[in-house]
Design goal:
Chain lengths: 82, 131
């Protein structure tokens, strides 16, 4: 199963377990975020990526410049494990 | 789930000379647990206050009615993130080349959509072939 298919399955399961008004509220938030033009602020292909140095799970600082010196870098932003 | 999917293509990514980092406001102790439970071997970084997410244009505050809703879920964001700001990143994935230029960017306010890891691998492969 592709990630997209897994996510569609997960979404159906999560939303199926919740009252319709709760699901509506969650959809409203997504729609409003989209309508707010939030997407236009997001960096695009061709933009310079900001450098960063952040602590990893062992609280050791990881510097994006050190990683880029070795090769390309995939940066994924996620919301949390919850 | 997305991180597990990324982990599954990590050998290919490493073979292409690239690295992966995942960024969230979640505190290192929770990232340690996450890495252990899901067998994640790439770096999972803590972005306190979503400062870096902000630089990528991904920072947003949950609207008040959604905070109220989340407050009814068994979910303690303040515990995970070490603050009660209700500010989160829009999920997104970027491929950055060695010169620091973004070569692929995908982000969607709908947190239930994500780019396929295979697309990320394809971008890296294309980068390698022109490098």
């Amino acid at each position: 199963m592709s990630l997209k298919e897994e996510l569609v399955t997960l979404k159906a399961r999560l939303e199926g377990n919740r009252p319709p008004e709760v699901v509506r509220t969650m959809h409203r938030a997504v729609d409003e975020l989209r309508a707010s033009g939030a997407g236009e602020r997001i960096l695009k292909v061709g933009d310079k990526a900001p450098d960063f140095a952040l602590p990893n799970a062992e609280e050791t600082l990881v510097d994006s410049r050190a990683l880029l010196a070795r090769g390309p870098l995939v940066v994924t932003f996620y919301r949390g494990r919850w | 789930m997305e991180l597990v999917a990324l982990q599954s293509v990590l050998p290919e990514i490493i073979a292409l000379g690239a690295s992966v980092v995942a960024i969230s406001p979640q505190l290192p102790e929770h990232n340690r647990e996450l890495a252990k439970h899901r067998n994640l071997t790439f770096e999972i970084l803590t972005d306190r206050g979503n400062e870096v997410a902000g630089k990528f244009g991904l920072r947003f505050a949950l609207p008040p009615y959604l905070r109220e809703l989340y407050a009814t879920f068994p979910l303690d964001l303040a515990k995970f993130n070490g603050d009660s700001s209700w500010i989160l990143p829009i999920p997104g994935r970027f491929v950055v080349d060695r010169q620091g230029i973004i070569r692929a960017a995908e982000a969607d306010p709908d947190y239930t959509t994500r780019p396929e890891p295979s697309e990320t691998v394809a971008t890296l492969r294309a980068l390698n072939s022109i490098a």
